[in-house]
Amino acid sequence: MPASFTELFERPRPIIAMIHTGPSPGVPGFVCVESAVERAIAETEVYVGAGVDGILIENMRDFPCVHEREMGPEIAAFMTRVSCAVKRRARRIPVGLQILFQGNRTALAVAVAANCDFIRAEGWTYAHVSDKGFADASAGKVVRYRQLIGGNRIPIFADIKKKHAAHALTSDLAIGEVAAGMELHLADGIIVTGSTTGVVPRLEDLRAVKEATALPLLVGSGITHENVGDYYDLADGFIVGSALKENDMWHGPVSDDKVREFMSTIARLRSAHEVVFQRN
Question: 12-279 architecture in CATH?
Answer without folding.
Answer: Alpha-Beta Barrel (3.20)
